[in-house]
Amino acid sequence: MNAELLLVILIIIGLVGRSNVIATSASLLLILKLTSLERLFPTVERRGLEMGLLFLTMAVLVPFASEKIGWKDVAPLLTTPYGLMALAGGAIATYVNGKGLDLLKMEPQMIVGLVIGSIFGIIFLKGIPVGPLMAAGVTAMFFKLIELFM
Fold first, then answer.
1. Tally of CB atoms within 10 A around 67
2. Coil/strand/helix, residue 78
3. What is the pLDDT of residues 61-90, one digit of tens each?
4. pTM assigned to the model
5. Rounded Cα gap, residues 21 and 133, in angstroms
């Protein structure tokens, strides 16, 4: 299967699964490919994740910069059970996402299964697509569990 067809399939999967990020990403890559700008692929591959994480982190930190969240809002994180659970949840999620990134680096073809699985989750489990990195992290944890029990 050629790259253009695969990208079109990913666009369709993204649209069906209501994952605008997947559909837009595949569309932009298809545009780069069709306009002979493939020389940008190594840069996107090398720096794209960093840029995405930069903007994601900036978006999350805006409430601090705009003073919607201050020290009085942060202090309970260290003193309440819910705050401590939020800290633990964040730490565990970033660990799992890191394992997902490792998995996608080693097995990039898994993205298709992750996206299709996300679509099933949206349709049958009424889930919300949060991205292939978390899906890859959960998959990596499944692999670790299988290794432990097999």
1. 7
2. helix
3. 999 899 898 888 888 777 889 888 999 999
4. 0.63
5. 12
